[in-house]
């Protein structure tokens, strides 16, 4: 059985509330789970103590049993100092979008055209 430590959504429409659960990876996101090991309330301020609450001992137990954490849960654990921080790389994040690249090319072409006309005089 492949275990995952992941978020299960609760709360009403536009008022999300998440449980941090240990579940079989084949189960639906909000479906059956094995154990609830914490909560996450994204509506609270980022510096609030009640935003993320985890039972760190149980999480470490499940990780020792072979459970894999999702990216969001692993970020919570990194912030709590439970696991070492992973190096993440998203090289496309800093590149401008298609429209911005086209605008930059048009601006560069216009500047080059203006420089050529100034050189001709």
Could you explain how this protein is built, in words?
With 121 residues, the protein is of the alpha+beta class. It contains three helices and five strands. A five-stranded mixed beta sheet has the order 4-3-2-1-5. The chain is elongated. The N and C termini lie far apart (77 Å).
Please provide a brief summary of the model.
With 121 residues, the chain is of the alpha+beta class.
What is the strand and helix layout of this fold?
Blueprint: E1 3-12, E2 15-24, E3 35-40, E4 52-54, H1 56-64, E5 68-69, H2 71-80, H3 98-120
Parallel strand pairs: 1-5
Antiparallel strand pairs: 1-2, 2-3, 3-4
Biased composition (Basic and acidic residues): 100-110
Region (Disordered): 84-121
Keywords: Ribonucleoprotein, Ribosomal protein
What attributes does this structure have?
26% strand; 121 residues; alpha+beta; five-stranded mixed β-sheet; elongated; S16 Ribosomal Protein, Chain: A; single chain
How is the biggest beta sheet arranged?
Answer: 5 strands, mixed
Q: State the secondary-structure class.
A: alpha+beta
SSE series? EEEEHEHH
Tell me the CATH architecture of one domain.
2-Layer Sandwich
Tell me, rounded to a whole number, the average pLDDT.
Answer: 89
The CATH homologous superfamily of one domain is called Ribosomal protein S16
Strand coverage percent = 25-35%
Q: Based on DSSP secondary structure assignment, what is the total number of beta strands?
A: 5
Amino-to-carboxy terminus distance: 77 Å
Q: Can you tell me the residue ranges where pLDDT is under 50 for at least 5 consecutive residues?
A: none
CATH class categorisation of one domain: Alpha Beta
Which fold name corresponds to the CATH topology of one domain? S16 Ribosomal Protein, Chain: A
Shape: elongated
Strand order of the largest sheet: 4-3-2-1-5
The rounded Rg comes to 24 Å
Helix coverage percent of residues?
Answer: 25-40%
Count of DSSP H/I helices: 3
InterPro entries: Ribosomal_bS16, Ribosomal_bS16_dom_sf
Family: Belongs to the bacterial ribosomal protein bS16 family.
Pfam families: Ribosomal_S16
Protein name: Small ribosomal subunit protein bS16
């Amino acid at each position: 059985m492949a275990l995952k430590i992941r978020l299960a959504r609760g709360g009403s429409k536009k008022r999300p509330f998440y449980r941090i659960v240990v579940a079989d990876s084949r189960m639906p996101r909000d479906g059956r789970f094995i154990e609830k090991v914490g909560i996450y309330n994204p509506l609270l301020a980022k510096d609030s103590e009640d935003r993320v609450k985890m039972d760190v001992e149980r999480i470490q137990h499940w990780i020792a049993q072979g459970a894999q954490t999702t990216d969001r849960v692993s970020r919570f654990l990194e912030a709590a100092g439970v696991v070492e921080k992973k190096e993440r790389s998203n090289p496309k994040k800093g590149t401008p979008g298609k429209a911005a690249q086209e605008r930059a090319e048009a601006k560069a072409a216009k500047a080059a055209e203006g420089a050529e006309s100034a050189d001709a005089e």
